[in-house]
Amino acid sequence: MAGKIKVATTSLAGCFGCHMSFxxxxxxxxxxxxxxxxxxxxxxxxxxCSDQVDIGLVEGGLCNAENVHTLREFRESCKIxxxxxxxxxxxxxxxxRNHIPLQECLEESYLDxxxxxxxxxxxxxxxxxxxxxxxPIHEVVKVDYxxxxxxxxxxxxxxxxxxxxxGAEPSLPYELVHYD
Amino acid sequence: xxxxxxxxxxxxxxxxxxxxxxxxxxxxxxYIPHLCHNPEFKPHxxxxxxxxxxxxxxxxxxxxPAADGQEVLNNTQELNxxxxxxxxxxxxxxxxxxxxxxxxxxxxxxxxxxxxxxxDAHFPFFYPSREVDASHHEVMLDRDRCILCELCxxxxxxxxxxxxxxxxxxxxxxxxxxxSTTGKLKDTDISVDDKAVHVCPVGAILxxxxxxxxxxxxxxxxxxxxxxxxxEHEMPIVEEAEHGR
Lengths: 180, 245
Fold this sequence. Notes:
The structure holds 2 protein chains of 2 kinds. Chain A is of the alpha/beta class.
């Protein structure tokens, strides 16, 4: 079918909990598949967005340079960009490192922690550089919609996507709004 | 004697001499969002969430005296959008990570966010560095979550008679200080039964070993919004004060 809605998803500095919650729509995913197809997503293993994606769902905040790069690709490719979950919206638990200098975080994890063998701070060229602080995605790109929650429940995803698909302005009723 | 009357969103609300607008509203079952206000204490007027339009001008309902013939606007889109912006600013100037907070589900700041359909914080985050004081064996102070409402300051001074807390600093550096030579809670005479330990609207002052006691689904704001909870709790307090006048 031509004209299926293209949906891309990614997890930046997140835990994939939002993706798991998305999959909790259970059998409703069959109804979703009637009207939508997945583009770039860990669910399809497609590595890059096609030119015109309708909806980009972004889980997680920005903790390294690759996150920023991926986010910018999503913004360029997606007509509608959605911040999904606490980490995308306010940095979430990874942002709790923000008041500790990055050097100290690395030393604590890789040099001084209990049980560390062969202590060294990882420095492979393949590793994306860490940002000094973890940031929510709206500090870097324009975000069109926000789905709060840690994670947002399956019903939040469902309400949002069905609203959009039916051409309605998405809105979340009181019982679907939570920050935890 | 004629009854005193004002209107809120067109509804006639009676009041008694000396009441503030928020007291008259609460007694009549009208919720005005608020955080730093608690009818058990003298109003503080700092959070500005209870901003209403009185005869066309913005006023804090918790400090503004009720007067005959006032036309008050409360539950309007404009005021609620302003309140949502204020709530967003409270979120970005602290470190409010709901998923890891023991107060989640019972937190008034969070509940006000839900009430106002706040889905994001809009502004860039400050991520300020704030000190945690876990020195006391029973009471925990996490300044990350403090919204500077001074309810603990008022409770400790006016009810407990201990003067344990005060605010210090200005702007983003404003923070709660503890009245002891070391600045630590363990060196004060605060005790777990003090009013100051029980009035925090957020998760800044907590009783240790009580976190996450109530499961998700049974917490205060899981089933009811803060408007309902607030009126249920505060209406009797305001009515009692009214009779004492």
